[in-house]
């Protein structure tokens, strides 16, 4: 055994005649003696395989990395030409479609018409606030009287309009109204009721869009509302808010004039002078009230402005009074048949000062000195509350009252009546 470091070439074997230098009985292959790996001193050589026979399938050649690359200039040129042709074709088609659709200005007329059409039809959902405003606005009018301005709304296609009595006060028998589309017309006074603050005028114009009435008894605190009118002479104004209180009893009127009582719908929609007589509508565009009174910290009417409190006459009451005026020229006033103490008596209710012998209160066994504490479940603080709430109901309505007589509490049903005066 050896590790080969002192290896010696063995003596050469004599050649074998007819052989290949292979000794007899050698276990190696025939050319083992010529194997370069068998003899370290034998010369080395690289043997290449013969070329494949012609006519057969060939393998894909390996690309030469040093070979010159193909130029992309023709491809880029073709893409550029194609893009220019596409852009020119698109611009031509766009111009043709614009001309056919009327969007290219011709002396300035087509552009203006397209703009007005887009503004008139913005594509709002009819149930959205914008859709409700668009639905109601054509029925709202601005009432022009001498030196003043107010609002109103069309309640019939033949031209009847509801507004506030204080809007037409001093206006004479004729006045002018204007509509949201800019058209105007004359109007005449049909009738008025100062105590309820409702008046009816008739516009000299037919086929008018009338509002849709809602039910003021079906609304609730928190319901969204829109107020329409011409506040501060800004015509075609719409403001948004909610119902912030119901049956808010209000006593209003000028010194020395008629005292008006309201069981009003209170809202925080911005309402100012000029909104008077305009409609308060619900989220579906139905009129639920007539904007009439604002509460302000101003020292005078000229300084009055909205502070988030406005009051509307419930439409059920306003509609009933307007129908009376249209039918008879005069409104019926609802009464309970008793006189009450007003001005904060401190009795915690409406104290009856006197009772008419044949009136509704007497028929319900109420007496002078009784203190009515609730009417249809609504708490009363003084006589003003009772007057305002009674006038909200129609004559013939039956209301439940709770009252106190001395130390005893009792209840009764009262059938309200119309004033005979």
Automatic annotation (TrEMBL):
Disordered: annotated segments: 1-66
Cited InterPro entries: PDZ (IPR001478), PDZ_sf (IPR036034), Peptidase_S1_PA (IPR009003), Peptidase_S1C (IPR001940)
Entry keyword annotation includes Hydrolase: yes
Keyword Transmembrane helix assigned: yes
Keyword set, alphabetical order: Hydrolase, Membrane, Protease, Transmembrane, Transmembrane helix
Membrane spanning residue stretches: 75-99
Gene Ontology process terms (BP): protein quality control for misfolded or incompletely synthesized proteins
GO cellular component annotations of the record: periplasmic space
Residues covered by the PDZ domain: 325-382
Name of the protein in its database record: PDZ domain-containing protein
């Amino acid at each position: 055994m050896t590790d080969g470091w002192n290896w010696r070439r063995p003596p050469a074997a004599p050649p074998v005649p007819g052989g290949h230098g292979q000794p007899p009985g050698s276990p190696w292959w025939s050319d083992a003696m010529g194997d370069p790996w068998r003899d370290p001193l034998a010369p080395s050589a690289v043997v290449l395989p013969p070329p494949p026979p012609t006519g057969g399938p060939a393998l894909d050649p390996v690309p030469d990395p040093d070979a010159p690359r193909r130029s992309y200039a023709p491809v880029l040129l073709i893409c550029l030409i194609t893009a220019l042709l596409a852009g020119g074709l698109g611009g031509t088609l766009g111009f043709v479609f614009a001309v056919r659709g009327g969007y290219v200005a011709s002396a300035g007329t087509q552009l203006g018409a397209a703009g007005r059409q887009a503004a008139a039809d913005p594509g709002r959902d009819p149930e959205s606030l914008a859709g409700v405003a668009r639905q109601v606005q054509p029925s709202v009018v601005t009432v022009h009287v001498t030196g003043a301005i107010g609002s109103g709304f069309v309640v019939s296609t033949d031209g009847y309009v509801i507004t506030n009595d204080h809007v037409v006060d001093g206006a004479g028998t004729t006045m002018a109204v204007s509509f949201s589309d800019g058209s105007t017309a004359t109007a005449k006074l049909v009738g008025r009721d100062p105590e309820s603050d409702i008046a009816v005028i008739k516009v000299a114009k037919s086929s008018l869009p009338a509002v849709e009435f809602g039910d003021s008894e079906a609304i609730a605190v928190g319901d969204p509302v829109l107020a329409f009118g011409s506040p501060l002479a800004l015509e075609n104004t719409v403001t948004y808010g909610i119902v912030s209180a119901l049956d808010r009893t209000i006593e209003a009127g000028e010194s020395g004039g008629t005292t008006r009582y309201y069981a009003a719908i209170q809202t925080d929609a911005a309402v100012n002078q000029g909104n008077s007589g305009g409609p308060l509508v619900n989220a579906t565009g139905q009129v639920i009230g007539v904007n009439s009174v604002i509460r302000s910290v101003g020292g005078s009417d000229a300084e009055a402005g909205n502070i988030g409190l406005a009051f509307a006459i419930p439409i059920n009451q306003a509609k009933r009074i307007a129908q009376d005026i249209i039918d008879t020229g005069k409104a019926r006033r609802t009464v309970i048949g008793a006189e009450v103490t007003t001005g904060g008596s401190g009795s915690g209710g409406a104290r009856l000062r006197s009772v008419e012998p044949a009136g509704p209160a007497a028929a319900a066994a109420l007496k002078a000195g009784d203190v009515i504490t609730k009417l249809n479940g609504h708490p009363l603080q003084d006589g003003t509350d009772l007057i305002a709430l009674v006038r909200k109901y129609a004559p013939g309505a039956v209301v439940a009252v709770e009252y106190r007589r001395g130390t005893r509490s009792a209840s009764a049903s009262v059938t309200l009546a119309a004033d005979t005066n």
